[in-house]
Amino acid sequence: xxxxxxxxxxxxxxxxxxxxxxxxxxxxxxxxxxxxxxxxxxxxxxxxxxxxxxxxxxxxxxxxxxxxxxxxxxxxxxxxxxxxxxxxxxxxxxxxxxxxxxxxxxxxxxxxxxxxxxxxxxxxxxxxxxxxxxxxxxxxxxxxxxxxxxxxxxxxxxxxxxxxxxxxxxxxxxxxxxxxxxxxxxxxxxxxxxxxxxxxxxxxxxxxxxxxxxxxxxx
Length: 219
Hints:
- The chain is 42% helix and 13% strand.
- The longest helix has 18 residues, at 69-86.
- The mean pLDDT is 97.
- The protein is of the alpha/beta class.
């Protein structure tokens, strides 16, 4: 049965855009600045999803086994400066994303990401996707990041729409958990940054291999 949906909330990294190469380049730029070895794209991609501080902390732990607060802060300053200048070097929307968003343009749409809002806006604008979204909420927009419901609550309040008619679309268990916490539906896409088995274990309402199939799953 097709789900009745008035509002679609999308995650960004791993759902709308493939940002792995640019994130990895900036992480490795910060690591090299501290005299540390670089990490592979596959390793860095596994660290994405809980904001840039968590990303840098996990990267430091991966190469050193520990990450003290001062070192994380120093690395973050280098990362942020580099990423702000290079966030569109290789980042692209996933295949089918522009077409899917166009097909869904009669619905209210928003973005909820743990990435800082300024980065999210720059990416959406740079890729020509920003006009689809009425609200963009970043990891610095609310007191709590996903999986806490704060981002979804902020979007629902801004648009005056009920959670029961909302579907969260993301590529991680954090996205599914936020959806459950706020009482909206959850769709997990399998082409992003998390393995299919991990997504299935989070128990979304349904899995999606191609975002172009989303319009046929809702009404």
